[in-house]
Write a structure and sequence with these properties.
Elements: H1 37-46, E1 50-57, E2 65-73, H2 84-98, E3 109-117, E4 120-121, H3 122-125, H4 129-147, E5 154-163, E6 166-175, H5 183-199, E7 207-216, H6 217-228, E8 232-233, H7 247-255, E9 259-260, H8 262-265, H9 268-274, E10 282-284, E11 302-303, E12 307-308, E13 314-320
Antiparallel strand pairs: 1-2, 1-13, 3-6, 3-7, 4-6, 5-6, 5-10, 8-9, 11-12
Length: 348
């Protein structure tokens, strides 16, 4: 039998407010608490460890009731994490979430296109000013297109290409296809709006629009999901294989170093400052964003003592197995009278 330990830490070294938290956010946004380096180290160090999850009913705070206990492998789901199992888990969760977009139902293909901006020096890449400007330009671009009766409903993800000391930031889109009879006219409108918009810019931010055409939906979603979870390609060619990637194939590709990761070009401090707790994919054009895929460890909806439950009534505590994983640095000894049993909560 594995020995389960509670890994007692000082309260201010884990999550300040409390040892337990209400379930209130989607899994793709986990964890959304105190984004400090010590917390990042803690979560990364525990990724892949076996953990016991205790699901508690807090509907009546004076009478807490244990609903169920599971023993499972814990994944931190942080995009900086290079654990292959965690990456595959994040990819599967993202694909499942994409498939919940109802307006994609029944479509065999999606329209894949990209918007790219001028290359920037690598030293300028570390920061948010260039990204904020590009977001503004893209939002303005789609706003101008809507004035021309071109409303594009799409998923958007960020991508990078590195060439020496320069970085080429660009964005990929998987959109509901435009009708074949209107395709040429729509593409002409898009280029016309792009050229007009750039000519009127006071702060010149040139960008290009490239259409890859309509491609297999599953292949497009697979491509977008890889970029979304932090898998970037070494291959700078414009050829894209629109073939859905299975978890087994992806795991092997990661182990064979087919992709580079955030940890290959960002320090933990840079990741915390620029990418942690930020959306890694968005929807545009009024395309509804789903809440997230269903967790393997489903949250109980009934309590034998207090009846029906909502997510706010359930609190999950995670207790890690003592597997010899190194603790993060600079953790002070815990006073006997101030201990926490739980330092990480899985959010749904």
């Amino acid at each position: 039998m594995p020995q389960i330990c509670t890994n007692r830490l000082r309260a201010d070294e884990a999550f300040r407010p409390s040892a337990r938290f209400n379930i209130q956010s989607s899994l793709s946004e986990f964890p959304r608490r105190n984004p400090k380096l010590e917390n990042l180290d803690l979560k990364l160090s525990r990724c892949g460890c076996m953990a016991r999850k205790n699901f508690h009913c807090y509907k009546n705070s004076n009478e807490v009731h244990l609903l169920k206990t599971t023993l499972t492998k814990f994944f931190c789901e942080i995009r900086y994490c290079s654990n292959p199992g965690c990456i595959v888990h994040r990819f599967a969760e993202t694909i499942n979430t994409f498939k919940e977009i109802k307006r994609f139902d029944g479509l065999g293909n999606l329209w894949h296109f990209a918007i790219g901006f001028e290359k920037i020096p690598r030293k300028e890449f570390y920061g948010n000013s260039w990204r904020k400007r590009q977001y503004y330009v893209m939002n303005k671009f789609f706003e101008e297109l809507r004035k021309e009766c071109v409303n594009i409903q799409s998923i958007r993800v960020m991508d990078f290409a590195f060439e020496g000391n320069m970085v080429y930031p660009h964005y990929h889109f998987g959109a509901i296809p435009i009708g074949a009879q209107n395709r040429r006219e729509t593409l002409l409108k898009i280029q016309k709006v792009r050229i007009r918009m750039i000519s009127r810019m006071r702060i010149k931010t040139p960008f290009h629009f490239q259409s890859f055409g309509t491609k297999n939906k599953e292949g497009v979603l697979s491509y977008l999901a890889k970029r979304s979870v932090g898998l970037y390609s070494y291959d700078q060619s414009k050829k894209v294989e629109y073939v859905p990637t299975g978890k087994g194939k992806l795991l092997q590709d990661i182990k064979n170093k087919k992709y580079f990761l955030f940890s290959d070009f960002l320090t933990k401090e840079q990741f915390l400052a620029d990418y942690y707790n930020r959306p890694h994919w968005v929807t545009i054009g009024g395309l509804p964003r789903p809440h997230g895929s269903i967790l393997t460890d489903s949250i109980p909806s009934e309590c034998p003592v207090h009846g029906s439950l909502t997510s706010k009534d359930v609190v999950v505590e995670v207790i890690f197995e003592d597997s010899g994983v190194a603790k993060p640095p600079n953790l002070l000894p815990t006073p006997p009278d101030e201990v926490l049993d739980i330092e990480i909560v899985r959010i749904v």
